[in-house]
Specification:
It contains five helices and nine strands; from the N terminus they run ββββααααβββββα. It is α+β, with helices and mostly antiparallel strands. The radius of gyration is 26 Å and the shape is elongated.
């Protein structure tokens, strides 16, 4: 479940979407900032501060509080931070991969442009090059860890892959900006988190319902019964 950012299904795994990045600029784009609290559901590798058992105990407590309030997965900051703690321990280093790869993409694009200019050595080629200089030219690049497409100096699409070949992020300004499809490992952790929460919430809710049924109406804010009537 996603709130501030929203989510889309990507290969059966939720992908967080962020319209614009909030980090440093590289070329014509702004990199994502994974410390941004609004970036719900987009994770980068972290070292957990709690064990899995401690996190699960905390999940159970949150679920009980939600049940008592009549809420389900209330998406409070505490809930989101706890889920991030549990999932990000198996996340790829999205922050590092995106930052380093984006710099590599722009550097390679500049090298391709320079090489193209060096090859324009004949008079005809020089005239063609001069004629093209104010026009948008496309550059497509493919690598083991990324795919990218430029129009002129503008990056209009990029994919980022981890060492396992899984796509862990993409950039497309015409389709929402940055997107972060989850890996299989992250999907497993999200399902474990939800399962722990749901079980605790169901147990707490059943207990609350049982207690409500066992309380006589006249003791539960109902009409008092006059024993002497």
């Amino acid at each position: 479940m996603s709130s501030a950012i929203g989510g889309v299904a990507f290969g059966g795994i939720q992908a967080a979407i962020e319209r614009f990045g909030t980090g440093t600029n590289v070329g014509n784009i702004k990199l994502p900032n994974f410390k941004n609290a609004a970036m719900n559901g987009a994770y980068t590798k972290t070292v957990p501060s709690m064990s899995d058992e401690e996190i699960k105990e905390a999940i159970v407590k949150i679920a009980k509080v939600d049940a008592e309030k009549g809420q389900f997965q209330s998406q409070t900051k505490e809930f989101l931070d706890l889920r991030k703690e549990y999932v990000s321990s198996v996340s790829p280093d999205r922050e590092g991969i995106i930052s380093n790869t984006t710099k590599q993409i722009f550097s390679n694009a500049d090298a391709i442009k320079s090489k193209n200019k060096e090859h324009a050595i004949t008079l005809l080629e020089l005239l063609i090059e001069r004629d093209k200089k104010d026009k948008i030219t496309a550059i497509n690049m493919n690598s083991s860890n990324y795919k990218a497409c430029f129009e002129g100096d503008t990056l209009n699409y990029a994919e980022f892959h981890d060492s396992n070949g899984e796509m862990i992020a993409s950039y497309c300004p015409n389709s929402g900006g940055w997107s972060y499809p989850g890996t299989e490992a992250e999907g497993v952790r999200k399902r474990e988190f939800s399962a722990t929460y749901n079980e605790a919430w169901n147990n707490a809710n059943a207990e609350i319902n049982a207690q409500n049924k066992s309380v006589p109406k006249h003791l539960d804010g109902g009409t008092a019964i006059d024993a002497y009537a």
